[in-house]
Amino acid sequence: MNRLEGTVSVVTGGASGIGAACAQRLSDEGAHVVTFDVSDGVDYVLDVRDEEAVASAFQSIMVAHGRIDSVVNAAGVIGGGPVHMLDGDEWDRVIDVNLKGTFHVNKHAALHMLAQGWGSIVNIASIEGIEGTEGGSAYNASKAGVVMLSKSMAIDYGRRGLRVNCICPGGIDTPMLRSITDSEGMNLYQEKLREEHLLGRFGEPSEIAAAAAFLISDDASFITGHALVVDGGFTAGLRVGLLEQMGM
Fold first, then answer.
1. DSSP codes of every residue in the chain
2. pTM, whole model, 2 decimals?
3. Confidence (pLDDT) at 245
4. 40 exposed, middle or buried (CB, 10 Å; 0-12, 13-18, 19+)?
5. Engineered SS bond to 35: which of 42, 64, 65, 114, CB 3.0-4.6 Å?
6. pLDDT category, 183, cuts 50, 70, 90?
7. Mean pLDDT, range 7-30, rounded to an integer
């Protein structure tokens, strides 16, 4: 498919994981993709917490390409813990990257999209932004903020030609997830987390990228303000083993 032929897409967190998969999928569908990350191997090495750097990058993209059709905000970090055990600096780090960084990118993307009269933004949130998890605190709060930011922007900019949605992934096999599940003593947690997904597996970054490409494309032209859950059934409900007792 070439649903995005001739368009310009910006992907944050484009060096690895979901961001890299989104960049590849959008490119495969015909978009010219511009990537941001704090790591090398992308078009703009920058920290989304740095508003001046974000603004400068968007200005440079407009000079080079004359348009910005879509943005996928995939830059993010993991972190948290029970609130009474959480250092304030760690709280700030997670909120500043995941929520404030998304705000910076959305703000400067929207400024150019409003001027041109169109645009589509997809923010990567999490199922942990729509339901709690133990020890999630800062991460859950940051991703809940991303969900509400997306909905608020959809309200504010719908009549100006901008669509804003977010994706709430479940457990996706990325370096971020593996940094938790592969650490010492976490094997049992890894298996329990995998089993909480009704499909019995973690998702692949390409499966989130497919959802992002859909939301960006004209196939989703009547969708805005939506939080699309892509979680292998994690949030569908509780499995207690009853079906096994019935021979299934």
1. --TTTT-EEEEETTTSHHHHHHHHHHHHTT-EEEEEESSSSSSEE--TT-HHHHHHHHHHHHHHHS---EEEE---------GGG--HHHHHHHHIIIIIHHHHHHHHHHHHHHHHT-EEEEEE--GGGTS--TT-HHHHHHHHHHHHHHHHHHHHHGGGTEEEEEEEE-SB-SHHHHHHHTSTT-HHHHHHHHHTSTTSS-B-HHHHHHHHHHHHSGGGTT--S-EEEESTTTTT----SHHHHTT-
2. 0.94
3. 80
4. exposed
5. 42
6. low
7. 98
Please tell me the distance from the alpha carbon of residue 230 to that of residue 212, in angstroms, as a whole number: 10
pLDDT (mean) for 135-161 = 96
Which of the residues 44, 139, 157, 189 is marked catalytic? 139
Q: Say yes or no to pLDDT of 96 above 80.
A: yes
| 22: phi then psi, degrees, rounded to nearest 5 | -65, -45
Burial (CB count within 10 angstroms: exposed 0-12, middle 13-18, buried 19+), residue 47? middle
Percentage of the chain modeled with pLDDT above 90: 81
Q: In what order do the strands lie in the sheet with 44-45?
A: 44-45, 32-37, 8-12, 70-73, 119-124, 162-169, 227-230
Q: Are 165 and 225 in contact (CB under 8 A)?
A: yes
Q: Which CATH superfamily is domain 8-173+205-231 in?
A: NAD(P)-binding Rossmann-like Domain (3.40.50.720)
The verdict on whether 189 is a catalytic residue reads: no
Mean pLDDT of 147-164: 98
